[in-house]
């Protein structure tokens, strides 16, 4: 048996980021940025007001109070979007809206609430009374306060979240160079597979794996190139694999990789240079990986996951997520640490297989008292059995039970991988 780390490093060897493409920024969510992006515009792009009120010279209102208001003449109105065309001179003010450009001469804004003018829509007043002083710069957002032109905003290799995209828009970007998102083909093997919703014939079970893998791919910002069930001969499966390799960037199979008399993935790929290993983990022991060649000579990575649904789920997290992250343009360090890890306390005990690292689907609950560790409980009373698919959706973490442990006790502290 080989370790989880050794198998992962074999899976990742040779995998590299897909080619880049330029896309409109509205279509970049979840893609990985290919170039460092510096600010093209300052933020804010011009000095503007943080309040609805009046642009003033701070010195003019230094002595203002409720009892001795300062009277100013209002010389202009500056709604958001307008470019002011006159200066604020001593004894005057200009009405200004939040986000509107500060007129020349002014150095502070008096919010409307600190004047005799009621808030809301009104005719432009001829004069105002100011009830409180404002210091220079008060309620003014200066040009470049947030970032100056040229400041680094998002670096290459970053997965583009909504917030990252909005930052890039705010500094002047309308399109971005990103890595192409991985297109993945999913092939489930097994004579026993029934269509979702179909009443299974005796000895058959619903194919839940293709739905699981396709959904996990979408959750990982990938494109699902094709999904197929192949219950056929090794020759048919090999043809389907070659076909998938012609257009997909990664091929994932489920089932047919252990020690059975009909392990079709092993048979179909015999002589094709695919490596089958026993990985010291549970679930997910039998694994295969390698490059599969299409008829047109295109060679793409392939992951052969075991058929048991929980094994598929766990193997996807441990091996598919990292290689997908690499293909999508995240660096090796990010790809190998794709999940957050933390410590948690068990609330019940369970058995674990000695000699294999158990990755048990668990429900993690945050502690009520600040500083306490979160608690975990297996999502199924039978623990990490690889067929326990119907409770899988309750898992939000995988508990890591070390190879040398064969029994977990209540209140043990374990590392967990957050999902
Ligand atoms: N003699 C041995 N037998 C097994 C070993 C072993 O080392 N020696 N390993 C066991 C382990 S561990 C696993 S995991 C499984 C993996 O088997 P395969 O990858 O060959 O998968 P299958 O035999 O095709 O299926 C296993 C299981 O999963 C169900 N399955 C398969 N595909 C689907 C699907 N698309 N949707 C839902 N469920 C699926 C299938 O019906 C089987 O119950 O091998 C052990 N055996
Ligand atoms: O590796 Mo298997 O997934 O333990 O059942």
TrEMBL record:
<comment type="similarity">
    <text>Belongs to the MoeA family.</text>
</comment>
<dbReference type="GO" id="GO:0006777">
    <property type="term" value="P:Mo-molybdopterin cofactor biosynthetic process"/>
</dbReference>
<dbReference type="GO" id="GO:0061599">
    <property type="term" value="F:molybdopterin molybdotransferase activity"/>
</dbReference>
<comment type="pathway">
    <text>Cofactor biosynthesis; molybdopterin biosynthesis.</text>
</comment>
<protein>
    <recommendedName>
        <fullName>Molybdopterin molybdenumtransferase</fullName>
        <ecNumber>2.10.1.1</ecNumber>
    </recommendedName>
</protein>
<dbReference type="Pfam" id="PF03453">
    <property type="entry name" value="MoeA_N"/>
</dbReference>
<dbReference type="Pfam" id="PF03454">
    <property type="entry name" value="MoeA_C"/>
</dbReference>
<keyword id="KW-0501">Molybdenum cofactor biosynthesis</keyword>
<dbReference type="InterPro" id="IPR036135">
    <property type="entry name" value="MoeA_linker/N_sf"/>
</dbReference>
<keyword id="KW-0479">Metal-binding</keyword>
<keyword id="KW-0500">Molybdenum</keyword>
<dbReference type="InterPro" id="IPR005110">
    <property type="entry name" value="MoeA_linker/N"/>
</dbReference>
<dbReference type="InterPro" id="IPR001453">
    <property type="entry name" value="MoaB/Mog_dom"/>
</dbReference>
<dbReference type="GO" id="GO:0046872">
    <property type="term" value="F:metal ion binding"/>
</dbReference>
<dbReference type="InterPro" id="IPR038987">
    <property type="entry name" value="MoeA-like"/>
</dbReference>
<dbReference type="GO" id="GO:0005829">
    <property type="term" value="C:cytosol"/>
</dbReference>
<feature type="domain" description="MoaB/Mog">
    <location>
        <begin position="185"/>
        <end position="326"/>
    </location>
</feature>
<comment type="function">
    <text>Catalyzes the insertion of molybdate into adenylated molybdopterin with the concomitant release of AMP.</text>
</comment>
<dbReference type="InterPro" id="IPR036425">
    <property type="entry name" value="MoaB/Mog-like_dom_sf"/>
</dbReference>
<dbReference type="InterPro" id="IPR036688">
    <property type="entry name" value="MoeA_C_domain_IV_sf"/>
</dbReference>
<keyword id="KW-0808">Transferase</keyword>
<keyword id="KW-0460">Magnesium</keyword>
<dbReference type="Pfam" id="PF00994">
    <property type="entry name" value="MoCF_biosynth"/>
</dbReference>
<dbReference type="InterPro" id="IPR005111">
    <property type="entry name" value="MoeA_C_domain_IV"/>
</dbReference>
